[in-house]
Design the sequence.
């Protein structure tokens, strides 16, 4: 009998706590899969069977080649997250060399019946909806399963925990796929902070590391194993305070700010290492500007700098140190935009940044306490309009900005805050600039509306010369488009851009109608049919401009 390759599932039928399932692959010789007395290579399954536990074995699928069977096994592993689910005896989900991208990244989806599985986005079955899961830690003080738990605090996706576990806390989702020791198809990565210094080191599937992690190996972070062959030892020196870290990186992909051993020894010899001033704004910010790849990258680094240095930034001395830092005017402008131009902005940033945590409910409580104390201390120092202006300029998510406005209103005893000076609103669309610009934009919107109304009136009135009539409407809509496009360039909304796109399509329809009239003069006199077409076009264009105004 030829070899038969098959994927199977074991299910423990003996009652008891802990794992109950195992998915594996097997190549059987001289026996059918159903009669193959093979019960996996799992030590955990073997321990359970030796203790008297009974299992059933189900053949899931057979294959002509071992490669096909292993691919199917790996797909089932990742659909069920067997390496992270305490319901499975599997220690890890399988990966296949050179085919990691077939299995990762994964997102959780829910079936119409309420079942959960993990699929690559876009490959989920019809009817399944995206239902993200959070990575969390639980309490299980029984210590029944030393292979699965760490001191009674196992981690898994929320929803996969065992019934006897108690929720402990959430962990960053990026650590769900991490490992502290080498695995097949895994590589070491280091997490870099806003200064490009090493914060952590872990193993992740090749090419599937979280954002902010780079190929590297830093033994100082309690990871086992050795750096891959060909990687070189590099050093990173923080300008302030003086601190030196080392890590291994691929020679061709060393992050900015890291130097080799020869350069590091020369820096020490030249006494360029040894800064100890913890308040050296110039060196810290100069270092960040040199590391960044453009303005967006610099802003991202400054946000992290703001969180780490929130106590220093909120002091009065920081502003004077910034002006003396030697940064260019453009660089200072970016720093002030992200960190804050005055003590109130910096203090509000500090209140938000110090509230960040993994638990949303806890974060809201801490944030409310911080903002309550802030406005209690400083609420009377500025007017309501000034507070509105400061809150509008904070470099924070919109949901946090709305929360700050709510807290300011409650502390100031106001039903609502006035609109900030720097932001004006026209028909629900926000514009940035001074009052003169606001009035100019309002005028443009009003004139565009008037031109559109005149075009609509032109199209809907019967005429003996429809071609001339349509050309006049065409010219009015072109003028309307110019004004609307100019106003849209100042707007913080996609509504006008969508409206303009629809307007362009409708103008194209009118151009086509004009072309047909010019090519077939006999149609110009046919009244009722033509005016039905014109009315349909007019109605469509009216809807476009109405959405813009």
Sequence:
């Amino acid at each position: 009998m030829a070899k038969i390759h098959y994927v199977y599932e074991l299910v423990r039928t003996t009652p008891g706590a802990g794992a109950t399932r195992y998915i594996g692959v097997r190549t059987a010789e001289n026996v059918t899969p159903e009669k193959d007395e093979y019960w996996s290579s799992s030590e955990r399954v073997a321990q359970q069977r030796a203790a008297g536990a009974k299992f059933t074995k189900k053949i899931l699928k057979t294959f002509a080649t071992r490669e096909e069977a292993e691919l199917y096994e790996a797909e089932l592993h990742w659909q069920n997250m067997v390496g992270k689910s305490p319901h499975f005896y599997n220690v890890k989900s399988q990966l296949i060399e050179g085919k990691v991208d077939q299995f990762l990244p994964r997102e959780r989806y829910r079936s119409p019946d309420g079942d959960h599985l993990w699929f690559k986005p876009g490959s989920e079955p019809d009817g399944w909806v995206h239902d993200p899961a959070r990575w969390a830690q639980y309490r299980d003080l029984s210590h029944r399963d030393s292979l699965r738990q760490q001191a009674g605090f196992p981690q898994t996706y929320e929803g996969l925990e065992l019934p006897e576990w108690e929720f402990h806390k959430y962990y960053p989702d990026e650590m769900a796929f991490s490992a502290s020791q080498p695995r097949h198809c895994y590589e070491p990565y280091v997490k870099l902070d806003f200064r490009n210094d090493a914060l952590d080191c872990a193993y992740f599937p090749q090419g599937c590391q979280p954002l902010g992690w780079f190929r590297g190996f830093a033994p100082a972070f309690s990871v086992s194993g050795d750096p891959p062959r060909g990687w070189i030892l590099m050093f990173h020196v923080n300008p302030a305070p003086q601190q030196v870290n080392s890590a291994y990186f691929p020679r061709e992909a060393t992050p900015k700010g890291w130097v080799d051993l020869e350069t590091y020894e020369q820096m020490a010899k030249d006494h360029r290492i040894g800064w100890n001033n913890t308040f050296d704004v110039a060196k810290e910010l100069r270092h960040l500007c040199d590391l960044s790849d453009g303005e967006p990258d610099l802003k991202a680094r400054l946000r992290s700098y703001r969180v780490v240095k929130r106590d220093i930034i909120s002091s009065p001395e920081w502003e004077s140190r910034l002006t003396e830092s030697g940064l260019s005017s453009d660089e200072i402008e970016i720093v002030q935009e992200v960190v804050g131009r005055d003590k109130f902005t910096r203090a509000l940033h500090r209140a938000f940044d110090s509230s960040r945590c993994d638990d949303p409910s806890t974060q809201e409580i801490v944030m409310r306490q911080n903002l309550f104390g802030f406005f209690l201390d400083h609420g009377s120092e500025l007017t309501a309009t000034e507070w509105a202006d400061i809150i509008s300029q904070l470099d924070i998510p919109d949901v946090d900005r709305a929360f700050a406005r709510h807290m300011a209103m409650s502390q100031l005893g106001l039903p609502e805050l006035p609109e900030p000076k720097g932001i004006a609103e026209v028909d629900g669309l926000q514009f940035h600039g001074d009052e003169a610009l606001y009035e100019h934009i309002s005028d443009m919107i009003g004139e565009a509306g008037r031109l559109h109304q005149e075009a609509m009136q032109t199209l809907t009135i019967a005429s003996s010369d429809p071609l001339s009539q349509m050309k006049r409407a065409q010219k009015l809509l072109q003028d309307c488009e110019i004004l609307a496009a100019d106003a849209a360039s100042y707007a913080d909304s996609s509504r006008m851009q969508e409206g303009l796109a629809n307007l362009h399509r409708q103008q194209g329809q009118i151009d086509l109608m004009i072309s047909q009239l010019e090519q077939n003069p006999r149609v110009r006199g046919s009244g009722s049919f033509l005016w039905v077409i014109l009315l349909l076009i007019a109605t469509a264009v009216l809807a476009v401009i109405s959405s813009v105004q």
Q: What stands out?
A: Confidence is low (pLDDT under 50) at residues 146-150, 274-278, 423-434, 526-549.
